[in-house]
Amino acid sequence: MLLIDTHAHVLSPDRTTFPRDYGLDMAWARGDLSAQQLVAAMDESSISKTLLIQAYSAYRYDNSYLESVIGEFPDRFAGVCMVDPLARDVSDRLTSLIVDRKFAGTRIVIVQPEPRLDDPAMAPFYETCAELRTPLCVLTIPPKLKELEVPLSQWPSLQVVVEHLGLIHTASGDSVSKERPLLDLARFPNCILKFSTISLRVAAAFEGGAQGQFERLIDAFGAQRLMWGSDYPSTPEGGIPGLVNEMHQALDFLPHHDLALLSGEAACRIWSTLRPVSSRGLA
């Protein structure tokens, strides 16, 4: 079974060449995880490729280390960069990163009430993503999920990947009300969900546990719009091998076809560069 990790970060031990610029106060972002260490962990876990996500908590919008890593290991990594979505020259910045520097996607982290995800000032950013056919990963909080309806409807060619299931476990209310804002997005075919180890661990608090929650998600979105990411090293317990085992154990109730989609095949449909070279073109 193809295994792709769609959510991991790298943190350079060389803090002179790649200085930290902490965007969020997260303890994991003060550690180190070199690309070489991550490749070794991937090999131990039978992970073919990893989608590296710009570590906003450690570097904000400085994509330098991420760019160097995907350049050194193009057969193992693809990268998701970040730009300030409200910058005046956001279109030029993003185009340069995607076209010239070969990033596979971009990301925004908006976990405060402002700016709104449906703010008209975000339009140039969304439009550029749509024009470049660049998948957009979004880390946000449950009260803001409804704001995604505007870009999802206005730019139907824009693929929006909601990270960590929209952090719905942090919402108030019962499990049904917590899930509702996320499930409401299923009607947009360009909305994709990414779940992490944290998502699996907190699923026990939802009706029916992990099985009940993922049956509802698959019923709403389809397995082809769900994908797994380790969230390493933000979630370090057990290392990459332990996180892979945890995912398989939590989802062992799924039919083989659905598990294959969540484990890697769905990600390859969004990011074709994640498919191992030897398996491209195969069904």
TrEMBL record:
Record has GTP-binding as a keyword: no
Record Gene3D superfamilies: Metal-dependent hydrolases (3.20.20.140)
Entry-linked Pfam families: Amidohydro_2
Protein name as it appears in the record: Amidohydrolase-related domain-containing protein
Residues annotated as signal peptide: none
Keywords, sorted A to Z: Lyase
Lineage: Bacteria, Pseudomonadati, Pseudomonadota, Betaproteobacteria, Burkholderiales
Keyword Lyase (UniProt): yes
Single GO MF annotation: hydrolase activity
Source taxon at top rank: Bacteria
Domain Amidohydrolase-related: 4-249
InterPro entries referenced in this protein's UniProt entry, alphabetically: ACMSD, Amidohydro-rel, Metal_Hydrolase
Species in which this protein is naturally found: Paraburkholderia xenovorans (strain LB400)
